[in-house]
Prior knowledge:
The chain is 35% helix and 18% strand. It is of the alpha/beta class.
Amino acid sequence: xxxxxxFDLEFTSWPGALERDWGEPGQLREIVQIGALRLSEDFTVVxxxxxxxxxxxxxxxxxxxxxxxxxxxxxxxxxGIAPAEALGDFLEFCEGQTVLSYGNDMVVLGENxxxxxxxxxxxxxSYLDAAFVNIRPWLNALAPTTATVNVGRLWRVLDLPGPxxxxxxxxxxxxHSFAAALRHVCAGGARLPEGCL
Length: 197
């Protein structure tokens, strides 16, 4: 059975960071949460992955980030794991797969892998063992109503049933929204781009 992965990240942010492309001193896009789904050819969820990370440079989450994602400092302090461990586990989950994102999350992933390596920490899996693809342009071309929304709102603008639990800007919820959108456009006759399966 052929499978592929969809993933989403939540990373440190502050008011105006998006507009300034995280350009203020010290404002790095450190991953706090990773969500991913391994999907079969018919878009059935085969396996889920979720990890909560403890940021290193900015270990204290901004109130803006907490309000946006619902992830609070106490939870990260209690349940978060080291970035090297979480990233290694995620890359192992992705090994040998095509890995789809709705946007350039693979760039943020690459930044975080680079920071782990710059600190001299080991990763148990390689970023190069998977094929990362930003599928947003393809989806936006097929379903133009998706062009102005984030991944967690895809289900809503396509008038689909919402994910069973969670909230927008929770990585796993956003992955379920993403998978629903892919399932919908392919049920309408579209085919995933070459090489995705």
